Amino acid sequence: MAANLANIAGSRANPSTLLPLELIDKCIGSRIHAILRSNKEIVGTLLGFDDYVNMVLDDVREYETTAEGRRVNKLERILLNGSNIVMLVPGGEGPEGAAA
Amino acid sequence: MSASGASGHGGAARGHGGSERGHGGADRGHHHQNRPGQSDRNAEKKPKETLFDLARYLDKVMHVKFVGGREASGTLKGYDALLNLVLDCTTELPRGDSDEPTRSEEKRELGLVVCRGPSIVMLCPEGMEPISNPFVSAADGE
């Protein structure tokens, strides 16, 4: 596994840069905060992802920010389509954590 | 639970490696094997060039706009061929257009984030300043 990542880093012209997908790979098993194109944000434990950054998340909270306030939806396990993702915050605790 | 997590880990790592090879040009090498005798050896050796050189902007502050109207700025720490970015000390900025129904909250600190390439609309290195129209004087001269 570690050797695999080293190969990926070595294959680049500039090995000092931090590869985005490599960073997400390191987050597997820990909490991740996904900010979507819409006014939604998803926080969950990352179980895995693919090339499109479709993700399987466990113990999920879905935050929807509206003019009235923030709605929270709890889900057990989801497959999140990568096409809606704008930003990924490793270890992020979501809008509540950021606000605190 | 931990077992399923570990298997997911391995799978994703393989997927990642596959994508790297795909962009590194080894994929083309595969085609080459299928059609021996083609004279594209020079093209094969040359690393695939990206449209713009983000290496110049490493450790520089970048301002990013996304599909859907979100905006963020942070220090560029890494990128890949698909324009996925790693930004450090990132702040999400409130949306400029107030008529958006999903008007964003205040500015907030996110720290180290990964930005998805397919969702990026605009990239602007901080410090870029508007210049006066260089064609105005030329038009006046004529």
UniProtKB/TrEMBL annotation, chain A:
Keywords assigned by UniProt, alphabetized: Acetylation, mRNA processing, mRNA splicing, Nucleus, Ribonucleoprotein, RNA-binding, Spliceosome
GO-annotated cellular components: Lsm1-7-Pat1 complex; spliceosomal complex; U4/U6 x U5 tri-snRNP complex; U6 snRNP
Pfam families (alphabetical): LSM
Record-annotated Sm domain positions: 19-94
GO BP term, pick one: mRNA splicing, via spliceosome
Annotated function: Plays a role in pre-mRNA splicing as component of the U4/U6-U5 tri-snRNP complex that is involved in spliceosome assembly, and as component of the precatalytic spliceosome (spliceosome B complex). The heptameric LSM2-8 complex binds specifically to the 3'-terminal U-tract of U6 snRNA.
Record protein name field: U6 snRNA-associated Sm-like protein LSm5
Organism: Ramazzottius varieornatus (Water bear)
Lineage: Eukaryota, Metazoa, Ecdysozoa, Tardigrada, Eutardigrada
Automatic annotation (TrEMBL), chain B:
GO cellular component terms attached to this protein's record: catalytic step 2 spliceosome; Lsm1-7-Pat1 complex; spliceosomal tri-snRNP complex; U12-type spliceosomal complex; U2-type prespliceosome; U6 snRNP
Biological processes, Gene Ontology terms: mRNA splicing, via spliceosome; nuclear-transcribed mRNA catabolic process
Compositional bias segments (type: Basic and acidic residues): 17-28
Domain Sm: 49-129
GO molecular-function terms, A-Z: RNA binding
Swiss-Prot/TrEMBL keywords: mRNA processing, mRNA splicing, Nucleus, Ribonucleoprotein, RNA-binding, Spliceosome
Stretches the record annotates as Disordered: 1-49
Stretches with biased composition (Gly residues): 7-16
Cellular compartments annotated: Nucleus
UniProt record similarity statement: Belongs to the snRNP Sm proteins family.
Name recorded for this polypeptide: Sm domain-containing protein
Lineage of the organism: Eukaryota, Metazoa, Ecdysozoa, Tardigrada, Eutardigrada
